[in-house]
Specification:
- The complex is a heterodimer of chains A (about 110) and B (about 140).
- Chain A is α+β, with helices and mostly antiparallel strands and about 110 residues long.
- Chain A has one domain: 3-Layer(aba) Sandwich (Glutaredoxin).
- Chain A has a two-stranded parallel sheet. A two-stranded antiparallel sheet of chain A has the order 3-4.
- By secondary structure, chain B is mainly alpha-helical.
- Chain B has a domain of about 80 residues.
- A two-stranded antiparallel ribbon of chain B has the order 1-2.
- In chain B, helix 1 packs parallel to helix 3.
- Classes of the chains: A alpha+beta (about 110), B mainly alpha (about 140).
- Chains A and B meet through helix 1, strand 1, helix 3, strand 2 and helix 4 of A and strand 1, helix 4 and strand 3 of B.
- Strand 2 of chain A pairs antiparallel with strand 1 of chain B, so a sheet runs across the interface.
Amino acid sequence: MIELGQLEKQSHDFAAKNVRIFAISNDDLESATKTQKQFPHLTIIADPQQVMAKALAIIHPGAAPDGTDTNAPTTFLVDRGEVRWMFHPDRFLERLPATDLLAAIDKALPQR
Amino acid sequence: MNTTSTSTPAPRTWPLIVAGTVFLVLGPVIYGTQIVMGQLVTPWYLPAFATVGGVLMSAAFVRRPSVARGLLVVLALLPTVFAWLVVAVFSRTPEYTGPASVGNKLPAFAASYADGRVFTNRNVETGGPAVLLFYRGHW
């Protein structure tokens, strides 16, 4: 969850751009509550049945350590319900640095 | 009668073993540093360095075969194969072909806020721009 730490650290930069951050995993509510306390400036979303992940088709089959399905680390920038930019690395070892996300916001939403 | 025996000294292998060990250890050390620094890029250097380490260990075995050097080769090849499998094969994510491509509307979905309230696509559509970041959760 290194990426969440980076986003929390730079949350004021996202707030200045009026961009909200929703961080979604297939953790249950109990784990999500703990994560929410750890990262108070992000909005943690619990998707234990992967309903949201399936709707957006970002499931990585069998990629959890126990062999179950998990989320492929993917980031969507959405404005008025429309996807304006997305990041989907070809390997889950790669994550999006917060600075790159801020730059992508400036590029995709230049009017802000 | 005075005879002089000229035996060839056994080739030195310890420099190869030391260099191989350094390469085998270097990858994980750099990866650990990379994680501490929060730079998560795909660590292709892990299998690459491990391969170099394995090759050096193998060279030591070829120069001077022994059971101990053979074991070192096996010990070097195991992490090498593991690193290649993880980085090149297992970590590969499926190509994105879903409905939320750039320019498309988000599909309908429902999940929960951490406090148990319902969270849907409508919460994203209103209230300004939003980032939806899917992460792999706790392990």
